[in-house]
Design goal:
Strand order of the largest sheet: 10-19-18-12-15-16-17-11
Radius of gyration: 29 Å
Strand content: 15-25%
Number of helices: 30
Shape: globular
Helix content: 40-55%
Distance between the termini: 51 Å
Length: 835
């Protein structure tokens, strides 16, 4: 059992701040042979992620998971600071226990330490003792500690779930803290039982007392009005690893990757990863090489370095704006939004403040900036949730963009060969991927990344097969080595046999034939085998996409996002600019209907010149139609431009985020006043169904409009109360959850009784299973991304509406989205890849 020796206890020291205290503890750990010196930086990095102060004057600094290879052996050191060191929030730490952990041996020491936490007098004594043996006696289990708080030792009655302590290191401080954070979001009493011991899930001290090692069984019990929701959230938190590194998770269902082929029996060396973009390619591999940037560590003039950093940040922001506009034209507004998000990363005040603080300590601008962004990117890359881990590449991309402007020496990138290649990389950054020429790149295979990363999304938009998270072994392949990239199966096959090449060629032919058949039939209506028609329209974001929508077989535009006119600028567009854009799109549709949605800004979309106040929860604040009312001048100008364009063709106007009949009444009154001013014919008016109140009031709302359009993305997060970007809950925010489908059913029923039609324009409409279920529930129009139009139409032509209706009714009685998807897969296994 791990023991603390006298040489591992340092008494009577002082430190001016937490950083220096951690460095002192780290040096003591180095002297004790526990860690390599580099581990100290990781201990400081851990503090930036989550505080390590436990309470009662005790802190337990330790490193990040990726630095465990710098641990020589498992152990702890104790450094006493009798005068205390501020550990944040005015909390003084007097005992700093530095932890080096290769295994879970240290948990026993921590268990004994929690006894001190439960006894403030004992903690005070140890924080001021001059006898190292007093500390050793407690941590080595030779002295009694405070009794367990009775409030956390009594089991509770309620529903239970079985989980396992995170592997490989068990329920120690970090995962226990993550569990406490989840538990505290609920009012229910929540207990965790391990063996014969029960702990309060809202108490870190209580959880640490359990001493649960990696993989050991735990029982979580909850009692109270929100107990069921609490258990569901806790199950998801354990599945995500409780902030511990876990095996690569399956990609989220949205967007759903293509299913792997049934037979992956390759002769060559198979390197397995995750499917990120479908397709199969054969050719030589080539390792992507990014430039190497070198910076001096120190600089003599801090003021000059401050200016250099500010100038580099401003120049990088301008570069990102240009890249956004260029990629917008290449792949559409939705994909270009990635680079808008990168601009937001540059505005992170904590990063900028920390970099300037390092400059004040004598570091150069380049060294300071690199230290800050690499530490944060490394932390993100280790997070268990694939959505957050995927953001590491984004942050690295932004960081290097600034660093290029600060580097002293820059080595150029090695150019790609003249012939097409399968590109290998550690983890391509989004701007790297955006610049790729599909004619020269047969496919992408990365050691890291995830299927939900921005890079994967761009690869799909450029129709480049891609496999991610294949592990570092892909980088061992030398340039020019023959390979097959199977984006459908999620594997890279090195040194393929002739049989492998033949199978790959056959797969390419089949995919090509299917796509060609869908392309040739793209103008055919989506009429099911029993004669029921579903319209398939396009979601678009700029005038150029209107032409593409028609060419792809779209039967109209079900959602025109007008926000593109308001973003990336210093002033709002005037009436003439908007009118010209809307008229261009209406004319491009050549008589097909187009739905123009009024300005939908707020929530995750922000426009600086609107000077919107900061909101604690912008998704529940001034967004959509509420913003239009706040800025009625902008609303009236947009309505004038839309109504003028309606003279050119069939225009429908749609209001976003309508929550009450009063909001609809006000929007219609303003629209009618503008229409009378212009003296133009009336147009069809509709609303987005995105919030539960609109569903519950659908019968009243349906009397006042010509159509509904269900925005499944927002409706899902509002119905399930799950932020689609939440690190734990996002994978569960599936639009095919029965609760969401029941909302769709209720909306369609109200619309039918009022004699109006219902469309859907969220991500579920383009999902293979979603297209079937929405149609089966009575949704008459599916508005999807342009590339998906031919395949969605082909899918609907392959099924009977009666089967879709029967399956939809059964889906309403399922327990969760996974059960719904399994039902659809089983029912339509032979209907064009419905999954």
């Amino acid at each position: 059992m791990l023991q603390v020796s006298e040489s591992q206890v340092r008494l009577g020291l002082a430190a001016p701040d937490k950083t220096e205290a951690i460095r002192i503890a780290g040096r003591a750990m180095v002297d004790s042979g526990l860690i390599e010196p580099g581990y100290i930086d990781s201990m400081l990095g851990r503090e930036a992620v989550s505080g390590t102060y436990l309470g009662s004057g005790i802190a337990i600094p330790h490193g990040l998971p990726e630095a465990r290879d710098l641990v020589r052996r498992t152990g702890v050191v104790v450094v006493q600071f009798p005068r205390g060191v501020d550990w944040g929030g005015g909390e003084p730490a007097r005992l700093v226990v530095g932890i080096a952990a290769k295994s879970d041996e240290h948990i026993a020491v921590l268990q004994r330490l929690t006894g001190v936490l439960g006894d403030p007098a004992e903690a005070e004594r140890l924080g001021n003792t001059s006898d190292p043996r007093a500390i050793m006696a407690v941590l080595n289990g030779e002295a009694p500690t405070a009794p367990v708080d009775k409030s956390v030792a009594v089991p509770i009655d309620g529903d239970s779930i079985a989980v396992a302590a995170p592997s490989p290191h068990g329920l120690h401080a970090r995962p226990a803290t993550a569990l406490v954070e989840v538990a505290k979001r609920f009012r229910a009493e929540i207990a965790v039982r391990h063996g014969g011991t029960t702990a309060n899930a809202k108490s870190l001290i209580s959880l640490l007392r359990l001493g649960a090692s990696g993989g050991q069984p735990l029982t979580v019990t909850a009692s109270g009005e929100d107990a069921a929701a609490a258990l569901q959230a806790i199950r998801a938190a354990f599945a995500a690893g409780l902030d511990e590194p876990v095996a690569a998770a399956a990609p989220a269902e949205e967007p759903a990757p293509r299913a792997a082929p049934a037979d992956l029996d390759y002769d060559g060396r198979v390197i397995a990863g995750i499917s990120a973009s479908p397709g199969v390619s054969t050719g030589p591999v080539w390792k992507f090489q990014r430039e190497e940037l070198t910076v001096a560590e120190t600089a003599p003039d801090p003021e000059a370095q401050h200016r250099r950093l500010d100038q580099a940040l401003a120049a990088a922001a301008a570069d990102l704006r240009n890249l956004h506009e260029a990629f917008w034209k290449k792949a559409g507004a939705a994909k270009a939004a990635i680079f808008k998000a990168h601009q937001e990363l540059l505005d992170d005040p904590e990063m900028v403040v920390e970099a300037h603080a390092l400059i004040d300590r004598g570091k150069s601008a380049g060294w300071a900036w690199r230290a800050v962004y690499e530490e944060r990117a490394g932390t993100l890359a280790q997070l268990a949730d694939p959505l957050l881990a995927g953001r590491a590449a984004d942050l690295s991309d932004v960081g290097r963009r600034v660093l290029r402007l600060l580097a002293v020496v820059t080595e150029s990138v090695a150019a790609l060969p003249d012939h097409p290649v399968i590109l290998l990389a550690e983890d391509l950054e989004p701007s790297d991927t955006a610049k790729l020429d599909p004619a020269k790149v047969l496919g992408l295979c990365t050691a890291g990344g995830g299927a939900t990363s921005h890079t994967a999304i761009i690869a799909r938009s450029l129709d480049i097969p891609a496999v991610v998270a294949a592990g570092p072994s892909v980088l061992d392949l030398e340039n020019g080595r023959a390979a097959i990239l199977d984006g459908d199966g999620g594997v890279l096959v090195a040194d393929p046999s002739e049989r492998d090449r033949g199978r790959a060629a056959e797969a390419r032919v089949k995919v090509g034939e299917r796509r060609e058949a869908e392309r040739l039939d793209r103008y055919k209506p989506a009429i099911t085998t029993d004669g029921k028609r579903v319209e398939v329209a396009a979601n678009i974001s700029d005038p150029a996409e209107a032409v593409q929508a028609v060419e792809a077989g779209g039967e109209g535009v079900g959602l025109m996002r007008t926000e593109f006119l308001f973003l990336q600028r210093d002033l709002p567009p005037d009436e003439e600019e908007q009118f010209a854009a809307y008229r261009t799109m209406v004319r491009a549709m050549n008589g097909l209907p187009i739905i123009l949605r009024t300005l939908d800004i707020g929530g995750d979309k922000n426009v600086p010149y609107l000077r919107m106040p900061a909101e604690g929860n912008p998704f529940l604040g001034v967004r959509g139609i509420r913003l239009c009312f706040e800025r009625e001048d902008l609303f009236r100008t947009q309505l004038r431009a839309m109504l003028r364009a309606s003279v050119e063709g069939p225009v429908r106007i749609m209001y976003p985020m309508i929550a009450t009949p009063a909001e609809l009444e006000r929007a219609k009154a303003i629209t009618e006043a503008v229409r009378r001013e212009l003296d133009v014919p009336p147009v069809e008016l509709g609303i987005m169904i995105e919030v539960p109140s609109a569903v519950m009031m659908a019968d009243r709302l349906a009397r006042e409009v010509s159509f509904f359009s269900i925005g499944t993305n927002d409706l899902t997060q509002y119905v399930l109360a799950m932020d689609r970007l939440h690190p734990v809950l996002a994978p569960q925010a599936d639009g095919l959850h029965p609760a969401v489908l029941r909302m769709v059913e209720r909306t369609v029923d109200a619309a039918r009784r009022a004699g109006i039609w219902v469309g859907a324009c969220g991500g579920v409409a383009g999902d293979p299973a979603g297209a079937v279920l929405l149609s089966g529930l009575g949704v008459a129009e599916l508005s999807v991304a342009i590339p998906a139009i031919p395949s969605v139409k082909a899918r609907l032509r392959a099924i009977a509406m009666a089967d879709a209706e029967r399956t939809a009714r059964e889906a309403l009685d399922c327990a969760d989205a996974a059960e719904v998807r399994a039902l659809v897969r089983h029912r339509f296994a032979d209907a064009g890849g419905v999954s």
